[in-house]
Design goal:
- There is one protein chain.
- The protein is mainly α.
- It has helices spanning 6-42, 44-60, 64-84, 92-108, 115-135, 143-171, 174-197.
């Protein structure tokens, strides 16, 4: 078959040649994004810490509602990037378990500190969560999409914790919500202790 229009023939050849590549790349991109997004939901430790951050941020109120979760997500990304870059981080699992216990205890005690201190506390634990994400990143995914995925999942879980607390404030007295949050914190802390001795 011949083509009278060489530009048309060139375009058709280009599209035909590029088609397999176009089909291959979205698969890896999609798997990286979805793999990253799914990761925080696959471990109870990650899941409950993200929710605890949201609940605690809502209890703190004011700017802490945004800055505390932002400090966690930002430091978590940093931890992941450094581990992927070759940094060896010791005691990752212990740091994660300690974060479950500590954040649960903060909720149970209804603790409040200044926003910078609260942000620093969650950032210290976030580094271990980020390192774990980095170590467990699949080899065949795009790193930046994987990071974007677990960051988006973390923000979603933080927002779920904040929304839960704010929603309870609308349907029950704030003092009752405070006790529900404190009980939830106790359960989270006990879960962390059970992880520590398991």
């Amino acid at each position: 078959m011949t083509y009278k229009n060489p530009l048309r023939a060139l375009l058709l050849a280009g599209v035909t040649t590029a088609a397999p590549l176009a089909l291959a790349h979205p698969g890896h991109a999609e798997s990286g994004l979805l793999s990253g997004f799914a990761h925080p939901f696959m471990g109870l430790d990650h899941l409950i810490v993200m929710l605890a951050i949201g609940l605690w941020a809502a209890r703190l109120g004011n700017k802490a509602v945004f800055t505390v979760p932002a400090a966690f997500v930002g430091t978590m990304i940093l931890g992941c990037v450094l581990v992927v870059g070759g940094l060896a981080v010791p005691f990752i699992e212990q740091g994660i378990v300690l974060s479950v216990i500590f954040l649960g205890a903060l909720l149970a005690a209804s603790s409040k500190f200044s926003t910078p201190i609260c942000s620093a506390l969650v950032a210290a634990f976030a580094f271990f969560h980020g390192a774990a994400h980095g170590i467990e990143m699949p080899m065949d995914v795009h790193a930046s999409l994987y990071v974007a995925g677990f960051a988006a999942a973390s923000v979603t879980l933080h927002f779920a914790g904040i929304s839960l607390s704010k929603g309870l404030n609308r349907v029950i007295a704030p003092v009752h919500n405070q006790w529900i949050t404190r009980i939830a914190g106790g359960v989270i802390a006990l879960t962390g202790l059970s992880m520590a001795v398991a």
